[in-house]
Design goal:
Strand order of the largest sheet: 5-7-14-8-13-12-11-10-9
Number of strands: 14
Strand content: 25-35%
Distance between the termini: 51 Å
Number of domains: 2
CATH superfamily of the largest domain: Gcn5-related N-acetyltransferase (GNAT)
Largest sheet: 9 strands, mixed
Number of helices: 8
Shape: elongated
Length: about 290
């Protein structure tokens, strides 16, 4: 009889997890979870995970802290999965199933129209597909490691250092240059500018028509953002900006410059390959879901 009772108990579903919004008081617990998690997804761009505290939805799942998920909207109608982490000894699918319904309710209430996830590790795919996400494109990585600099086109007029005063106009430009899930808000562009080692803007008639943001570290240089207003494309501005970046880092002693872009960005890929970049083979799928 005792063996039967134990068998029945082992089949019972675990008690539902307590789901609540993450707050400042959770900073230490979330930091510990992220440092120790067996299953961890972080897609942050220029954002710090704990810097998302206070933005919603940023959820936690409790017995003790067993999981966290953040889908903060940016821009307002798009939300990327920025963080999903699961404590050791817990199933990522089970924790997702606990957090996902509440996250979906909250992004819907916030007016989000589209959700997106960059599946870096591959382990998220079955979970995402089970929740209605579908693959739409991929992010592909390229690198330039040629000691020969490509030639610029005709002189790049209106090139100057990008400043924080440019951010409102750049956010408008960004919205024109990119599809909805790839746009950045003024706030995120500000974070990017703070971390950039080279930031440049091109003006025509006193208005920004293109910009780039690049970073540098011990691992090499990285062209993090390049945008040209659609009405000013096909005039050599993007080409000259990339040559400007390569020349800057070559003079600093960098022999390798990386970037990433959408796999279906044919215009961008053609530009980069023409200037000596080649795909590294590193490619991550992007999953999307419309919010009804």
């Amino acid at each position: 009889m005792g063996d039967v009772r134990l068998s029945l108990l082992s089949r019972r579903k675990p008690a539902p997890l307590e789901i609540r919004l993450a707050g400042e008081a959770d900073r230490h617990s979330i930091s510990h979870l992220l440092s120790d998690a067996r299953w961890k997804h972080q897609h942050l761009d220029w954002i710090d995970t704990l810097g998302l505290l206070g933005q919603q939805p940023f959820l936690t799942a409790f017995e003790r802290m067993v999981g966290t998920m953040a889908f903060p909207p940016d821009p307002p109608d798009v939300a990327w999965l920025r963080v999903f982490a699961v404590a050791r000894g817990h199933s990522p699918a089970t924790v997702w199933e606990s957090l996902w319904p509440e996250a979906l309710v909250r992004v819907t209430q916030a007016g989000v129209k589209r959700l997106a996830v960059l599946d870096v590790g591959g382990w998220l795919r079955p979970i995402l597909e089970g929740s209605g996400f579908a693959p739409t494109t991929a992010v592909t990585f390229l690198e330039w490691n040629d000691s020969r600099l490509p030639e610029a086109l005709a002189g790049l007029e209106g090139l100057r250092k990008l400043t924080f005063d440019d951010l409102p106009a750049l956010a408008v430009l960004d919205g024109r240059a990119f599809g909805s899930i790839w746009r950045h808000s003024q706030e995120v562009l500000g974070l990017a500018l703070r971390q950039a080692s080279l930031a440049s803007v091109v003006e025509r008639d006193g208005q920004p028509v293109a910009y780039q943001l690049s970073t540098a570290s011990a691992y090499g240089a990285h062209l993090a953002r390049l945008a040209v207003d659609p009405s000013w494309q096909d005039r050599g501005i993007g080409t000259n900006l990339v040559v400007h970046v390569l020349g800057h880092f070559a003079r600093q002693g960098f022999t390798r410059v990386t970037l990433n872009t959408q796999a279906d960005n044919e215009r961008g890929l053609s530009l980069y390959k023409r200037l000596g970049f080649s795909e590294t083979g590193q490619r991550y799928p992007v999953f999307e879901e419309e919010v009804l």
